[in-house]
Amino acid sequence: AILTQVGLERWLCLRRVLAPRRRNLTMSGDAEAAGQSARRVPGEARIVCLLCAVNFIEHADSAVLSASMISLEEDLNISMLGLSILYAGGGISMSIFGIVWGMLADHVSRKVLLTCTCVGWGLFSLLGAATQSAHMLFVLRWGQQAMLSSMGPLSQSIVADISEPLRRGTLFGRINLGGGLGGLITKPLALAAADITLAHGIRGWRAMLGLVGVLGLVAALLISRFMAEPDREQAPLARTEAEPAKPGRSCGLQCRLFAGLFCIPSFLALLGQGIFGCTAMYAKGFDALYLKRCGHSGAALGTMSLIGGIAGLPAAQLNGAIPDAFARRSPLHGRPCAAQVSVVAGAIAFAIWVLVAPRVGIMALTAIGILEGLVGGWVTPGVKLPILAEIVPPHQRATSMAWLATLEGSLGGIVGPMSVGFLAEQVFGYHGPRSAKDAGEEGSDDSRAALGTALLWCTLLPWMMQAAVFFPILHCTYRRDLCRSQAVYKIASSAEDDDSAPAATEVGKPTGS
């Protein structure tokens, strides 16, 4: 490790000595391309705080579902495969509707969109808390996640318009800090209360889901009252695409945008790593169920989630700041390198966590989980989102983000949960609560081993594909795509200046000649 560090430092010094002009050109071109995004807008801190609040509720919703899996098995008689379908259905809904919100975000007030989706999100959550049917819960979960899918494209568009390129990773990290707080506060409560019966016979998981719905309605009220609509960063020659168009022409523009994204090699690399990353992320949603199968109580899991969440709050901020530091050292290779380090370190930590979970106490698992959160969460806030903001035109950022989220989330959302459910139940011999009770302690041990093995297969393999295949591709393609984006921006700026010059001359032309 020391030799590698020394060699990297020598290479960076040699690169600065031999190619200062290329680096300066890259950084100055990047600053030029940022344009108005480096401009601070009024109420920027308030906008970021409100986005943190929405992300808070989003992670709270995920924590409630993850903590309530055993309760759903018992109360609604849902099998492991049924839980996988419920989980996958929510991910597919987010992916499908994400592109709709992305298209709207490029042309409609983002404040209005956030307000409306938070209201719908809250109502679907309240209805889901009251339903008595597993099939109706599937439908309501689909609608809830459809509303929730607006968060990704809208936050991508807003943050790109209120920040400069080298600060975007930090701001996305702050927004993820809000999500960390949501998991910190909600998951311990959900783990402790999901299996108990509260007043008037209300089950704990229903109360927690209803709380998420109320928080969604409160967030809608705060956004409508306090959020200021940020100015959009307009790319040159974007005015023609922003003009009202007929439905057929609008569909044609979206088709051309979609085809154009597939002509960007860095976008394809981001898409590939995103598919495998989402597969592992959705597979990890069964971690609370696995710990309960290992014999840890709901109160112990709540304690672990609380301590881990408090210790992980600084990590949420560092997840964006550390890749920014890599990018300052090497603008072209820093972020891909940070992603590789993060994925490999996080995979090792999670594998250790799964393997030792049946044999160690809750505090040891908490320490391993803190380590995983510290090193394994750099990719989205510090690598994927900043790179995507630099390789696509400013006026198409929200739509591009929505396409990326749709493609990676739909495939990863299907493969991740379904593969865990299928491998655990059909290959490795997992049994539900009732069948495990009939089979005795041996059946419970078999279910634990089956679920743990499925988790390892469905997380480690996708992570290794990210680190060994797609991020090395990004090392090769990012520089060319960034230069192409800057060249297109400069050409468009020159064309716009040439178009406006005759008009200015005509206005200033003396009348007597």
UniProtKB/TrEMBL annotation:
PROSITE patterns according to UniProt: MFS
Keywords: Membrane, Transmembrane, Transmembrane helix, Transport
Transmembrane segments: 78-100, 112-131, 205-223, 257-283, 295-316, 337-356, 362-380, 401-424, 454-474
Intracellular or extracellular location(s): Membrane
Keyword Amino-acid biosynthesis: no
Superkingdom classification of source: Eukaryota
Major facilitator superfamily (MFS) profile domain span: 47-470
A single cellular component GO annotation: membrane
Major subcellular site: membrane
The keyword Transmembrane helix appears for this protein: yes
Molecular function GO terms recorded: transmembrane transporter activity
Membrane topology of this protein: Multi-pass membrane protein
Family, as annotated: Belongs to the major facilitator superfamily. Spinster (TC 2.A.1.49) family.
Name of the protein described by the UniProt record: Major facilitator superfamily (MFS) profile domain-containing protein
Source organism per UniProt: Pyrodinium bahamense
